[in-house]
Amino acid sequence: MTHKSTNITSFFFFFGKVWSFHIVIMSQTDMKFCSSYFLVDPTKASILDLLLLLFFPNLTNTGSIDSPPDTLKSVRRTFATRWIIVLAVLVQKILMLLRKPFASIGRFLTYWPNLLTANGGFFKLILHVLTGKLVKPEESSATYVSFVGCTDRRVELDKNISVGTIEYKSMLSIMASKVSYENKSFITSVVKNTWKMDFVSYYDFYNAFQNRNLTQAFVFKASSTNPNLIVVSFRGTEPFDVDDWCTDLDISWYELKNVGKVHAGFSKALGLQKNGWPKEIIPLGHQYAYYTIRQKLRDMFAKNKNLKFILTGHSLGGALAALFPAVLAIHGEDELLDKLEGVYTFGQPRIGDEVFGEFMKEVVRKHGIEYERFVYNNDIVPRIPFDDKVLFSFKHYGTCNYFNSLYKGKVK
């Protein structure tokens, strides 16, 4: 019995050490901007910590959880809540452990289709290898496509959808969301040469909490079909990017006064600062998604008062598109909100609680914004972050256009 107990203890100790990492310190954030918060750092939690939290919550060292005492009490009271925390953290830790293999698999599955295309197909590839004429694809070129692009190479807009139709903006948004996964050269070429529209900007935005660029977006003007429409498209969850998946699975939140609980990971990706959401910032060499795009829109509207804009994105990109007008509302940017015609998201994860949903419904109503959320069948992303009725309460709001496996749609 003693021997077995020693082995079990050694097992937990070993894995506790293996799974322990160190990155962002929670206290670096000034919490004065929010009325409450619940922040989970999976890099600080060992497997033993998770087991203790699940089965012996009163003995748990909550070093991986940063939250007011009252909130921590509710965590300890409810097994279902603790289970959601443990599951979310465990999945993130597994993903972090597989970061390099995931990235390698992604590069392999992306590079080889591009290699085949660059050489004109399989048989020509063999011929080029044998004759020493192998063409190696350039990852930054206008012909190099992402893994998403490899699975579906369509980039043309539907010629049957014209300006003024109900489907126009949502169909344009679908393609903008799809193309957002590509590199700058590819996006520029598609916008200019295929869509015959005006490419405005491509961005690689900084995340102040992870100290690197993690958020991408591009802006274009639909000049060939609607000269007064600007489209802002955020890149979504890349299939083999562990950071993107961990952001989707994060269950952390900030509760903002008169706004509700807002997802912490998406807020950080959009440009949250260490002191919250100040109306204006000094960038200090970095570009943050919300602040940079807002200024770009201000500059464009100053030159043309007739311009309007829409926001779009798939998966993580959809979350950022849906959160963008919320921050505009927090800052009282009524002029910009009045120019926002619609938000169109595809496979968007949850970004806030029911209070936040009510806040956004009022914003949408007040400014006449069309908000459309598209969901396909059993897609897991719109069903995360995980939800409970005690602590998290992440809920969707607004119109849901649901499509089953046969692509038959209905509005929920």
Automatic annotation (TrEMBL):
UniProt cross-references to Pfam families, sorted A to Z: Lipase_3
UniProt GO molecular function: triacylglycerol lipase activity
Record domain Fungal lipase-type: where: 231-387
Keyword Metal-binding on entry: no
Membrane-traversing stretches: 6-25, 79-98, 309-330
Top-level division of the source organism's lineage: Eukaryota
Gene Ontology terms describing biological process: lipid metabolic process
Keywords, in A-Z order: Hydrolase, Membrane, Transmembrane, Transmembrane helix
Name this polypeptide is given: Fungal lipase-type domain-containing protein
Source organism of this protein record: Brassica cretica
